[in-house]
# Entry
Amino acid sequence: MANIDETAILKRIFSYFLLIFLAVVILAPFFIGIWTSFLPTADILKGNFFSTNVSLNNYFDAFTQTPILRYLGNTVVISIITMFAHLIFCSMSAYAFVFLDFKYKKVFFALFMVTMMLPSEAAIIPNFQTVKALGLLDHYSAMIVPSLTSAFGTFMLRQSFMQTPMELKEAADIEGLNHFQIYWNVVLPYNRISLITLGAYSFLGAWNQYLWPILVTFSNNSRVIQNGLKQLQSEETFNNWGMIQASAAIIVIPTIIVLFIGQHYFKSGMNEGAVK
Amino acid sequence: MLKTSTTDVVPEKKVEANSDRKFKLTAKDKYYASIFVGPSLFLLGLFVFYPMFRTLYISLFLTNSFGNTTLFVGLDNYVKLISSPDFVASMWVTVVYVVGVTFFTIAMGLLLANLASQKLPGIAIFRTLYSVTMGVSVSVAAIFWLFIFNPSAGFFTLLTKMLHLPTVNWLTSPTNAMWAIIITTVWMHLGFVFLVFLGAIESVPTTLYEAADVEGVSSRYQFFHITLPMISPTLFFVSTITIIGSFKSFGLIDLITKGGPTNATNMLVYRIYNDAFFGGNYAKSSAEAIILAIIIAFFTYLQFKFLEKKVNY
# Structure
């Protein structure tokens, strides 16, 4: 009996050892990045990693000497507009595919599915020409207009809308509601969890855009944060590692906090997305 | 997940019959349909279908520096690509990267998820810590790791100096640069993949493990003969999205290696971007884009097929 207990305890110690070791490995880039963001660049370049000259100077410099706040603002605006556009357009098309009957419905739905198979990276040349012709280059709209809707979002919401109980729809029909009213007052509220999940996906998707914004923005007025860090790195600040690390920390800390708070919710949303 | 209401007393068949009767093609429905589905259809047409056909069209021509088509050459651009050692090397590099990223992401994700699915006090902390890289975007990941790989002041250089080991040139040697990109990509994706695997492992019925425990089966055997088969649909889902994602990789390459050294990390999307927007060779770039589209379409199609069947075993 005692023998079994001993192996169980050893096993448990080994588990914790492995858990902690892996946590350290995964978090190391964060620790290194955030720690160096508090150090003077001179010390970092000298390899004086355990310097005691800890300060917030790099953060102060990042805010005052670089347009990082502008980049953040641009990205927040673009991401929020994209998110709401997805919620509106995707839910509308999903509604049509579930609750309306129309000619070529199957064909149109097949087209949406095909769209999910085509990578946007393969369409950059004509899309660049289109956006240029529309005169949208270097504006927020260059990043918003091409991604106002999403085939994936439509598909995801369609799967969810199909679970709406038919009785609700029938009750709405008896009440004499038209499709706009059913859409707005019955279907959207009933599927709010899926809508929130899609909203989170869309926001993060827009936030993480990298290739498309690099093509269509040329100035700090419209540059997004993902490209902004590259810009800082390529300019005179190239070797100012302290400030670059501080900028990275400024960007990552809010998302990490959101993640810690919403961890439970994100996890369930993720699984829903994976299963559907 | 399904939200069946408790007041659901109507038999399903009757509901379906009802809905069939109601869903008749009426002029009104047509009017609503055009409003509801029209905008999305128009946008997808303009920004997905038109550009795909346009890219295909351009890839069959020669182009001038403005991207206008000049001379129809049929499949010549493709033939040129396939016979160019440069492009073949690029495809090879892309495949190595995709295989490396997919293998290590899945192996690490499974290891972490399996560890974190244990019922131990304080395990919730580890679950949170392991999922932390989900909050990291491309540029932040690139900067954190660029500093670690930095040859003069970087963390790895510091570490090797402290331990009196020879310094590794992470970004100037072709093989090491590939490793650097793979490590960074795996690290960035790990949080998401970990969470998906953890969810799948937790949904495996505990009775299976209990039965195995009674039989005295080792935990390694349980992992390979219970956990893995039971989560095979998730395994498939994660594999395909990781493959698709890494074929489309661009940001990390642009920030960390710029395709170098000597094209060692010059992958497909980076090539498409460079050939068009720096080389001005729109025809070549379009042919490469079509090749990318075919690859991605293939893997997405696989995913659809298997999701439909919900593979098990």
About this structure: Chain B has one domain: 78-310. Residues 1-25 of chain B have pLDDT under 50 and may be disordered. The first strand of chain B starts at residue 61 and ends at 63.
